[in-house]
Amino acid sequence: MFGRKKQEEPEVIVKPEVKQPAAYVPSRLTTIGKGVVLVGDFITADTLEIKGALKGDVLSEGKIHVAEGGVLNGDAKASDVLVDGEINGNLVISNIAEVSDTGSFQGSLETKKFVTNPGSYFEGKLTMIPDRMKQKEEETEDSSTIEY
Question: How far apart are CA 96 and CA 64, in angstroms?
Answer without folding.
Answer: 11
